[in-house]
Amino acid sequence: MKNNVETLIGNALNGDRASIGRLLTYIERSPEIASKILSIIIQEKGGGHVIGVTGIPGSGKSTLISRLISHYKNSGLRVAVVAIDPTSPLSRGALLGDRIRMQEHATDPRVFIRSVPTRGVKGGLSFSGVAMIEVFDRLGFDKIIVESIGVGQTDIDIMNLAHTILVVTAPGLGDEIQALKAGIMEIGDIYVLNKSDKPEANRTYAYLDFALETGEIGSEKIKWKPRLVKTSAVMGQGIEDLVDIIEEHLQFIKKSGIYQEKIRVRRRYMVRLLAEKLFLETLENLSDSIEPTGKNIYEEAVQLLKETLSQFD
Amino acid sequence: MKNNVETLIGNALNGDRASIGRLLTYIERSPEIASKILSIIIQEKGGGHVIGVTGIPGSGKSTLISRLISHYKNSGLRVAVVAIDPTSPLSRGALLGDRIRMQEHATDPRVFIRSVPTRGVKGGLSFSGVAMIEVFDRLGFDKIIVESIGVGQTDIDIMNLAHTILVVTAPGLGDEIQALKAGIMEIGDIYVLNKSDKPEANRTYAYLDFALETGEIGSEKIKWKPRLVKTSAVMGQGIEDLVDIIEEHLQFIKKSGIYQEKIRVRRRYMVRLLAEKLFLETLENLSDSIEPTGKNIYEEAVQLLKETLSQFD
Questions:
Q1: Which of A43, B46, B48, B301 is the most buried (most CB within 10 A)?
Q2: CA A248 to CA A190: how far, in whole Å?
């Protein structure tokens, strides 16, 4: 297996698509092989820029990502997309649609797109998702775009791993912005008002601008004041501006040390998520066979924990 | 503390609303006290009927639940509602609206409504949610309605604990039904076509009827063939029929032993979810301070896992 994995990594480093795909499949399927792969690949220099893109459903996030891919590709960069796919059957349909929209890049050798289910840890951020970001980084992808649907804790978690966080909104989604405020509206480095060709765009822009000014959304992070950009992904407008601000933010985080810190956070997440995964899988197996008395739930839970631990001795 | 808890349970058993509320708050806040409460209260006979209600957003689930509450109340029964509230900021708004709609029962001494966030285990089913079902049961509530929004694994999990599962749909939600098929459309004991006063109702009824006949939705469970009922909660139509079929199902599961089996499953879930909660909280604290090398992620994860579990020795 060892030689096998090393050959695969060698081929993947040479840009062989099939090998990259197989590496990622190993990452998803076996924690042991994933660990093996990571231990080898982590010796590569890396240096990619992880861009998290989240936003309100209906904001045209996928079309925007597609435009970013085209732009980076045309600048001679290699782009990977990790799309975090919620297990919810409701949203799966929508995401599949998005996937298809991004397929125009699917056969391009400079672009690699992969969906990762969140099912990993009970609907939370999965070990595979984080490990894939690491792998793309070490394989020399310049821009690693992490897409998530903008709902719930998973999004906040995955966005924590991104160097630069884009929050995409659109005109006429005022209520949704209100609803989301508690979540993703707080975490953006760059807020993108997409679909800005729409008639209501100016009003929404003014609202977002005001909300940013007053600190109602987007908390200032160590001297980076969150920015607001107008785009129309469908019309191809504003993409250059957006790319410029993304680069500005990259320069900022490299100078301020945030870039390196995020890489440390990523590694910590990987280990923690893998520990969770191993634990929950073992616990699930064990707990199917227990018959608690209910006389002391706490004691019985601790007992179950100890039993789980003994599986790893 | 012990006497305190015992007094509280005594008062709650006498139907004192404030005491019931405080018991539930303890359940949410402290696993140790929750365990104490459960160990005492589990000696009560119980015997409640847990009815899970899930369904497509927009199907009028909350109005239907409100009708069921009225019906049971008027029959002299005590009704508890455990509403599983996803942490997603997006859906929170909608659920708060639902809560308000159910408030008409809020001051009735025979009715107790409580929301439980899913945040417990990373967006999954929470320990408190299951423990509350147990507490309501032992406090002598006759019908314990568990409401969930019908999206994702949490719903499937919580529904596993219900004696009787209602899946609510509505006319004109065909696409949504398709999208949900992989999830909740498989788990119903009773399918409710609500809003059946709408013009498209007959077509949707025919579709659901056919899907049930052909086994496309609703898998047959040990001799219970899933049923289909038309209601219009707003007009108050079909509620009697629905209640009759719910009773028919209750008789069936009591005879077949499923009723008792579900109580065992509930207890097993409680212990397992508490174990998960204790583990994940401890892991989170520990993993914030680790600095993995990445040389062997698997080994490092197992190390972290052992360290976490050793906190319980």
A1: B301
A2: 11
**Which string of b and e fits B211-238 if b means at least 16 CB within 10 Å?**
bbeeeebbeebeebebbbbbbbbeeebb
Q: B40 Cβ partners below 8 Å, 6+ apart?
A: B5, B6, B9
Going from N- to C-terminal start, the domains of chain B cover 1-43, 44-263, 270-310
* Pairwise CB contact (< 8 Å): B292 & A267: yes
Mutate to test the interface with B, among A88, A261, A293, A299 (most CBs of B within 10 A): A88
Nearest neighbour of B296 by CB, restricted to A39, A93, A291 = A39
Q: Do A180 and B272 touch (CB under 8 A)?
A: no
Q: Using CB atoms, which residue from B151, B274, B276 is nearest to A280?
A: B276
Instruction: Give tens-digit pLDDT for B54-87.
Output: 887 778 888 899 999 999 999 999 999 998 866 5
Tokens of A308: 């789980």
Helix (H, G, I), strand (E, B) or coil at A78: coil
pLDDT of residue B47: 93
Nearest residue in chain A measured CA to CA from B290:
A268
Look at residues A20, A153, A5, A267 and name the one whose alpha carbon lies nearest to residue B118: A153
Round to whole Å and give the CA distance between A148 and A193: 17
**Best residue in A271, A299, A312 for a mutation probing chain B (most B CBs within 10 Å):** A271
Q: Between A90, A183, A294, which is nearest B179 by CB?
A: A90
Among the partner-chain residues A35, A93, A123, the one whose CB lies closest to the CB of B296 is: A35
Could you give the count of Cα atoms lying within 13 Å of A133 in the half-sphere of its Cβ? 29
Are residues A275 and B301 in contact, defined by beta-carbon separation less than 8 angstroms?
Answer: yes
Q: pLDDT (tens digit, 9 = 90+) per residue, B195-208?
A: 999 988 998 898 88
Architecture category of domain A45-263 in CATH: 3-Layer(aba) Sandwich (3.40)
Chain B residue whose CA is closest to A264: B291
The architecture (CATH level 2) of B44-263 comes to 3-Layer(aba) Sandwich (3.40)
The 3-state DSSP class for residue B82 equals: strand
Chain B residues in contact with A301 (beta carbon < 8 A): 31, 35, 271-272, 274-275, 278
Q: What is the pTM of this model?
A: 0.77
The angle at the Cα of A243, spanning A238 to A244, to the nearest 5 degrees, equals 100
